[in-house]
Amino acid sequence: MSLKMSIEELREFMADVFPQVDDAFEVTELAPNVITVRMKISDRHLRPGGTVSGPSMFLLADCAYYLATLAMIGPKALAVTTNCSIDFLRKPAPGDMFAKARVLKLGKMLSVGDVLLFSEGVSEPVARASLTYSIPPVK
Amino acid sequence: MSLKMSIEELREFMADVFPQVDDAFEVTELAPNVITVRMKISDRHLRPGGTVSGPSMFLLADCAYYLATLAMIGPKALAVTTNCSIDFLRKPAPGDMFAKARVLKLGKMLSVGDVLLFSEGVSEPVARASLTYSIPPVK
Amino acid sequence: MSLKMSIEELREFMADVFPQVDDAFEVTELAPNVITVRMKISDRHLRPGGTVSGPSMFLLADCAYYLATLAMIGPKALAVTTNCSIDFLRKPAPGDMFAKARVLKLGKMLSVGDVLLFSEGVSEPVARASLTYSIPPVK
Amino acid sequence: MSLKMSIEELREFMADVFPQVDDAFEVTELAPNVITVRMKISDRHLRPGGTVSGPSMFLLADCAYYLATLAMIGPKALAVTTNCSIDFLRKPAPGDMFAKARVLKLGKMLSVGDVLLFSEGVSEPVARASLTYSIPPVK
What's the predicted TM-score (pTM) here? Predict the structure, then answer.
């Protein structure tokens, strides 16, 4: 399958539909079934001690997989997460994070894939997640 | 096993160690291996349309299971989530949420259990999660 | 929702559709959204040392949740597992096992719930699992 | 980290410790943190209709990740699975299957990673799994 949205179209979609999270995320690479998303870390993403919080990493994994799916199916704001299984592997380093997501199965009803999360400049992953999105039927 | 912390001791611990999230959570019931935690929903927990966001539900599940574990092992701030698998079942209703967590296995190194999340006043669960916490060894 | 199949109807369905596993399983309790399934453990379910193997526990969890779903939707052999997340908590005791499954969400497309696995005569669970089944659309 | 066991040493270990499953599995590729394992499918791995059963795919994922971990830590038969989350993506094709596993985090207590399962000759994965193994402490 081929891409149905470009990086620029994903950016405009997010700014339109999710303005409150949009400023934190930037798609840096996009190809069929794979995407790289950078997350600009600010104070609201940190927990005491200054490391990125678990919910913020969940948000990054979820957002990256959402964008990977949208890029393949087109702009459907109503796709919703039905499952996320996340393993926290290492303490994040200070600074921004990025996510590399891949779509493993794109069916009529479900999109299933996984994501690796990294701290910028560190080669070993900070977390891994697998996600399932439910895709709303075409009306 | 018996409880090592009371509701009041958990409250003081959270206010001390996690002041930035403490105001949202309240332990309403506590017994060995089971806990009920209420989450006061405010604007920062919502996504467009006004429903509670996925990362906020992840935060509630994670926090409830952390408190369930602490109540059994005593105040160890360094217990960390190693895995969370969460299924989103229904759209949350407007208003506060609560979590019912149970500890299924409390070993020397790992605490494993699960959590059901509810919208206040609705009997069917909004989400379910299973979590594993790594418990730091006693020095 | 109410039950669409009885214990006897589930037994006949399994004998008909899955004769090769049927002799190991017996539904011992059934009510809307909850089921108890006993698994008769034989040599083929054991690993070296005589404990029940991981794949056998996966089979029990999967089968119990399948039967819990069928009891609610009627005999649809084509319901298929899309996800199973299983935590192994304790070494099983020698002897038979049983599973207590509950359906948490029964939608048009997906059935989502969880299962606790026990060794007979032991009160603490041996494993927990959450499962998602995809339900084939009515033609 | 470097490999502590070769393909031949893994083969001898399995023949010694797990003779009952050994004949089905063959390590075909091995490098630090990554392994490819082929599973010879026979009648006992099939369900009605002739496709590979869910428990057999669980067995392959579990065995592949166990071997990936052993290759990095040396022959420790007591490493045990604590969690497996598996997504079934497509119906397997007839014939043998293989698994590609990678170790994402090798700590003192836990090994965490993931596995893709394939039917021979088909490029799209049949299933994905993430696994956590608990590593017994050195005495």
Answer: 0.95
